[in-house]
Description:
- The protein is 31% helix and 18% strand.
- The chain is α+β, with helices and mostly antiparallel strands.
- Helix 7 (237-245) links the parallel strand 7 (216-222) and strand 8.
- Helix 3 (101-108) packs parallel to helix 6 (200-211).
Amino acid sequence: MDDGQEGRKEQGPPEDGAPDGEAAPQGAAPASPDQGTGSPPRGPRVGPVAAALAARGMRWGAATAAYVVVVVAVLIGVNLVGSRIPTTFDVTPSHALTLSSASKNIVKSLHAPVQIIAFEQPGDPTGQQVRVLLSQYAADSHGLLKFEVVDPAADQALAARYNVTAYGTVVITSGNNTETLQSSDLTTYDSSGNPVFNGEGPITDAIIRAAQPVQLTVDFLAGDGEPSISQGSTAIPDALAALQGQGYTVNSLNLLTSNGVPAGVSAVVILSPQHDLSAGEVTALKNYAAGGGHLLFLLDPTTTAMPNLDGLLQTWGVTPQNDLVIDNQSHYQTDPTTIVPVFGSSPITAPIQQANMATLLLQAQSIAVGKVPSGYTVSPVLTTSASSGSTPNSFGIADLKSLGPNSSLTYQAGKDIPGPLNVAVSIVQNLTAAQAAQGVGASAASGAGSGTGSGTGAGAGAGAAGLLGQKQFRAVVIGDGAFIASSSTGSANGPINVQGNKDLLLNAVGWLTGASQGIAVRPHASLNSQVFLTSGITHVLVDTFIFGVPLLCFALAFGTWWSRRRL
């Protein structure tokens, strides 16, 4: 390479617009950015407003990304927690797939293994509901209740063993006892005739019947004009079915023809007698009570004098007033004679009150508490509303014979009985120190006498056999017998099926017999809820969701756009 070439290599870079290896002529104007292949063209100059917007956009983008990261992290955390702590939510009407407190008490107090086999068709929605329900029984049973869902077509030998011939059959076994439920037993119907799954009540009752080690017997007094409990009677079939479902054997007892109350009777019910009891009946009931018996009096107001029955109750310091209770503050709709009583502090009503349910008494009478003999305690179970002024909110019309279809139901001072009034009371024999030491009445001795117990004491621990030892006398007196009546038309609209009326009956019997695990609120039939809209409400809903909501969204969007436009 010669010196000339080396000299050219050592020259600096050519000026703008000059060919390679040649200097630009002096005084020549620089080439425009669009000319030649020199430096790349420069972009437009960025103003301060555009720079601020770009910076704000970056901040918004960063904030959005941060929000997304936080939301994703929360969702992941919730899923991780949910996978380790399984939680279910029952969104069915009336919580049809959630166990009631009564069912939970029953399975928690089991003392023998219970096996449940549900024979269901694969893919059947009802079968899935049964599976969900049985899983809750198993979860609360401390391992004593187990279940399986079987396809009878796939396991024909097991189906034949239990004589299963149809899908939907549920078999409950415990020891040598077997109870079988058909699909029709687990179904109720709403007002439109649509089938509704209602399996908890029948399954719980079947568990009680299969696992109960002691048979409890409830006798209804007969012979004095009481409602018949014979098969086919329409008076109280729902009440009888409810008692039988809880494992009680129900019999009729005529003390006019029998030699006293039979041994082993858990409780005697005196329901709405139309005539006074005979002296022999009173003596038989007194002897039964003296031996630690349990009595349930359900007494309608009547104009018939009943000195023998009144004398029996006065033995323990209580007297039916044979008045008509009026409650102008707490009653059903516009009828002050159908009262919604106030709950006393009693284990009989505590579960009903905790469930925010009510009881309805139809034309009740009040129960006066006088001088209670030593050794007994009388406690209010249901009362009328308290008075706040000179005129009582509740009172008892003392002269029933003067009442007619158009009679005034106003308070008459000096003649009527001012409230608040007792419409149900409990009577309990106090335990001696020796009896308490021996555990007599342990299932509810704590607080039962004062009416403040929870109703879930040692009776659950002792099982159904721990039933007060049949040594502690107890009685419940309710000034109404009509609240357990069934509908005369055979429908489910009878008083017994209203709110907590059935629970009041069963809790009273459970408290009397010491079956404390049965003192609770039982599952109620779940029905399809329907809402009927008037034309006015329909127009409001249409205008709101068809026009109102879209206009609101548009207004919000326009406001957002306008606020950003001004930036």
